[in-house]
Amino acid sequence: IAKLNRRSIDFVEGESELVLRFNVEYFRATFALIFMAEYVIIIFFRYLVVSIFTNFIISLWI
């Protein structure tokens, strides 16, 4: 989970720490782009690992 920039579900935080995070600092569109970029990275590396370990190149057009 740490390599995917994700925290575990049981991570304990206080409310004051949640307010100080980047959730408040960015506008909604920028905040959404940050999370979309993280998911794109996860999907890309999934594609990369599958294509390396199966010796099979998956077409990106499918």
Automatic annotation (TrEMBL):
GO CC list: membrane
A Pfam cross-reference name: NADHdh
Classification via InterPro entries: NADH_UbQ_OxRdtase_su1/FPO
Location of this chain's protein in the cell: Membrane
Main location: membrane
Entry keywords, A to Z: Membrane, Transmembrane, Transmembrane helix
Record's bilayer topology term: Multi-pass membrane protein
Coiled-coil regions listed in the entry: none
Transmembrane portions of the chain: 26-49
Highest taxon in the source lineage: Eukaryota
Name of protein: NU1M oxidoreductase
Gene: Mtnd1
